[in-house]
Amino acid sequence: MKDMNDLAPEWLEVPLDVNDLDSRIWPKSLTRGEDGHCLIGGVAVGDLVQQFGTPLYVLDKQEFFNRAQELIEAFNQATAKHGTTAKIYFAGKSLLTTEIVRWVDRLGMYLDTSSSGEMMVALAGGITANRVGLHGNNKSHGEIGKAVTNGIGVIVIDSEIEVERIASAAGAQDVIQPVRLRVNSGVHAHTHEYLATAREDQKFGIAMADVPNLVAKIRSHKNLKFIGLHSHIGSQIFAVEGFVESARRLIRLHAELLAGGAIPELNLGGGFGVAYTSADKPLSIQEIAEAIVAAVASECKELGIDVPVLAFEPGRYISGPAGITLYNVGTTKDVLVGDDAKVRKYVSIDGGMSDNARPALYSADYTAALVSRSSEEKPALVRVVGKHCESGDIVVRDGYLPEDIAPNDLLAVATTGAYCYSLASNYNYLPRAAMVAVDSGKVELLVKAETDEDLLARDAKVIR
Question: Is 307 found in the same domain as 207?
Answer without folding.
Answer: yes
